[in-house]
Design goal:
The protein is α+β, with helices and mostly antiparallel strands and 416 residues long. The chain is built from 11 helices and 14 strands. A 7-stranded mixed β-sheet has the order 6-3-7-12-11-13-14, with helices on one face. A 3-stranded antiparallel β-sheet has the order 8-9-10, with no helix packed on it.
């Protein structure tokens, strides 16, 4: 055999097989693993590489929070076993994906002997040759049957493991849903109604092709406003929440702020994404009391939005301001607040920055294990029922429009 060339041909054959014809993601994964194994023999790619280079995960991918790569590799392993148990049973090269590694292996297989190849001409009378040939035929058939049975069992076991892994998504502390996430979000999982996620969509005037600005009621006509735009931070925030709630086996309902009504607020838990300066619905429901958003009306920062610390503790500043609006954004501040809803049996979570990037950072803060662990520690919460209303401020470092680091700088608990 011709080594690497034969291995490449075998990969192409599997990629075109019935076993993989309905799964683009598995074909893409196999192609990547094969290319890596042939370029770097004996070196397995990292889980992070596969997540970002094959499945397009972001640079902050954390395998402890996202088991997607392991699940996809298990599926591919099962498909390979399925292929060699059926249409690839007679292939001369076997491609393997051993458990515990992401490196493909290649093994040359001996051809399946045919009955006529087992008979030795002239070694016995014709009747004896026929009997010997028949005997070896039965042996070959039994061997083939055993191989097929073992392969089928391997497929069944792999599929069982995969299914059990999915069923254990919530029940085991395996890193799929870390304890801080379960503790913090527990209150939004217990209700009969799916929580509402309400994202900000400020009113603008103008047109996208010629320029837009915020609506000013003092000089603009309300009939000319646009209310169907939102920031990139809000979009990414909704995605982050959807990912976490998917892990928690809970669905979300999403609505833009301009379409939200007080009737919605009375009957379910709410998650508001965006500051009251843009998410105007927040002005109509119970909102923050310790940290409030306010537009500056003086000095060089006139028009900039700041967070006012209503009751600053010792050492805390009275206001939090992001980078000036006429400069490159390098820092922002955001509020994370859990307050009681209109109905005391429901909760409202407010996640809002003074800019869209701060809002994104606030949501990511409550969707990541490490930051949530810090927050729960500062709140003195170890179990879900211990989580009570609170208001907090985080400082966000921004690099090229991306929140890269967030630190808790103020935390006020509601008096008990």
């Amino acid at each position: 055999m011709n080594g690497k060339t034969d291995y490449q041909a075998q990969i192409e054959k599997i990629l075109a097989s019935r076993s993989l014809h309905s799964s683009d993601s598995l074909r893409k994964l196999l192609h990547y693993l094969a290319d890596h194994s042939l370029r770097n023999p004996g070196v397995a790619p990292k889980e992070y590489q596969i997540a970002t280079e094959v499945f397009g995960r972001r640079g902050d991918f954390d395998p402890h929070l996202d088991s997607m790569v392991r699940v996809q590799v298990a599926r591919l392993r099962a498909k390979l076993a399925d292929y060699y148990a059926s249409e690839g049973a007679g292939d001369m090269v076997e491609v393997g994906l051993p458990k515990g590694t992401y490196a493909l292996t290649y093994h040359e297989r001996a051809p399946i002997a045919q009955p006529e190849q087992l008979a030795v001409a002239g070694a016995a009378p014709p009747q004896a040759v026929a009997a010997t040939s028949l005997s070896f035929g039965w042996v070959a058939a039994l061997v083939l049957f055993s191989v097929l049975l073992a392969s089928s069992l391997a497929v069944a076991i792999d599929r069982l493991i995969l299914r059990q892994g999915a069923e254990a998504h919530l029940t085991e502390k395996s890193g799929v849903v870390p304890a801080p996430l379960r503790t913090f979000w527990y209150g939004f999982l217990a209700g009969h109604e799916q929580p509402w996620v309400v994202f900000s969509n400020a009113h603008f005037v103008g047109r996208p092709d010629s320029g837009m600005r915020y609506y000013d009621p003092k000089r603009d006509t309300a009939t000319l406003t646009l209310d169907h735009y939102t920031g990139v931070g809000e979009v990414l925030a909704v995605h982050a929440l959807d990912t976490v709630f998917g892990q928690l086996h809970q669905q979300l309902r999403v609505k833009r702020g301009s379409l939200f009504s007080l009737d919605d607020a009375k009957n379910t838990d709410l998650i508001f994404i965006g500051s009251p300066s843009e998410n105007l619905t927040l002005l109509e429901i119970p909102t923050t009391k310790q940290f409030i958003f306010q537009e500056k009306h003086c000095c060089s920062r006139q028009g900039d939005v700041e967070i006012i610390n209503v009751h600053p503790a010792a050492g805390e500043p009275k206001e939090y301001l992001a980078s000036p609006s006429n400069q490159l954004l390098t820092e922002d501040y955001a509020v994370i607040a859990l307050v009681s809803g209109l109905d005391a049996s429901h909760s409202v979570l407010i996640l809002a920055g003074t800019t869209t990037i701060g809002t994104q950072a606030a949501v990511e803060y409550v969707c990541q294990q490490n930051s949530l662990q810090e927050l729960l520690h500062e709140l003195g919460v170890s179990q879900a029922p211990d989580l009570k209303p609170f208001e907090a401020v985080i400082h966000v470092k921004v690099v090229r429009g991306v929140p890269v680091n967030s630190d808790l700088v103020a935390l006020h608990k509601e008096p008990t």
